[in-house]
C-alpha cells in the first residue's frame, strides 16, 4: 500500500459564539436599562 | 420558504422593547462576526470575549437610542468588532502574553532562582558548619579568608590591612582553602547541598 505523504488540507472550522455567550448577552440585554430624565440618561443593570 | 425580517426592522423592534428581536439578530450574524474576529485573533477564547464585548456595546448603544440607521446593522457591528480587535492588540502589545504549547513549556526553562525552604535550611546549616571549621584554621589564614569571603575585600586591601604583601595574602588564602579541605576530609564532613 502506498504511503500518502501529502498533508491533509486544513479544514476551515466554522466559528460561532457559544450558546452560553449568547444567553449571557440576552440576559444582559434584559437587565440593562436606560432611564431618561430631562436631558440626562442613566444606565442601570438590574439583578 | 421562511420569511426573513429585515435587520432594520428587528433593530427598531428591539429598541421598542422586543428582546426576542436581539436574539434573532445575534443568531443571524453570529457566524459572520465570530469568523471575522477569529480570522484576526486566531484564538477561540479571545474571539468569544470580543464577540461578547461587541454585543454589549451594541446593546448599550441601541438602548441609549444613540444608533442611527445610516448604514446597515451588520457593517456597524463589524466596525465595533474591528475596533475592539485593535484595542485587544494594543493592550497585548503593552503587556505581551506568552503561552507555552504542549511540546514547549516556558517554565521548564525559566524558574524561580530563590531556594525553596528545604534547600535554604540546608544552606544555612552548611554556612554555620563552615564557620566552626574556619575557627580551626591558623589565625593568619583565618584572617585573610574572613576578609576575602565575608567582608568581600580585595587582596590589595587585605594586604594593606594585615601589613603583608599581596603575594603573602594570596598564599595565606590558598593555604586556608587547602587546610579547610583537609579538615573536611579528615572529619568526613559532607558540605554539599
Description:
- The complex is a heterodimer of chains A (47) and B (193).
- Chain A is of the alpha+beta class and 47 residues long.
- Helices cover 28% and strands 26% of the residues of chain A.
- Chain A is rod-shaped, with a radius of gyration of 24 Å.
- Chain B has 2 domains: 7-98, RNA polymerase sigma factor, region 2, helix turn helix motif (Rna Polymerase Sigma Factor, Chain: A, Orthogonal Bundle), CATH 1.10.1740; 117-186, Winged helix-like DNA-binding domain superfamily/Winged helix DNA-binding domain (Arc Repressor Mutant, subunit A), CATH 1.10.10.10.
- Chain B has helices at 7-15, 19-41, 44-64, 73-94, 117-135, 139-150, 155-162, 166-186.
- The model of chain B has no long low-confidence stretch (mean pLDDT 87).
- Classes of the chains: A alpha+beta (47), B mainly alpha (193).
- Chain A binds chain B through residues 14-18, 21-22, 24-26, 28-30, 32-34, 41, 43, and chain B through 19, 22-23, 26-27, 30-31, 33-35, 37-38, 44, 47-48, 51-52, 55-56, 59-60, 63-65.
Compact overview of the structure:
The complex is a heterodimer of chains A (47) and B (193). With 47 residues, chain A is α+β, with helices and mostly antiparallel strands.
Low-confidence stretches of chain B: none
| Biggest chain pair interface | A-B, 18 and 24 residues
The main β sheet of chain A shows up as:
2 strands, antiparallel
- Strand proportion of chain B: under 5%
Q: What is the H/E order of chain B?
A: HHHHHHHH
Approximate shape of chain A? rod-shaped
CATH superfamily of the largest domain in chain B: RNA polymerase sigma factor, region 2, helix turn helix motif
What is the CA-CA span between the terminal residues of chain A?
Answer: 65 Å
Mean pLDDT of chain B: 87
SSE order and pairing:
The complex is a heterodimer of chains A (47) and B (193).
Chain A: H1 19-31, E1 32-37, E2 40-45
Antiparallel strand pairs in A: 1-2
Chain B: H1 7-15, H2 19-41, H3 44-64, H4 73-94, H5 117-135, H6 139-150, H7 155-162, H8 166-186
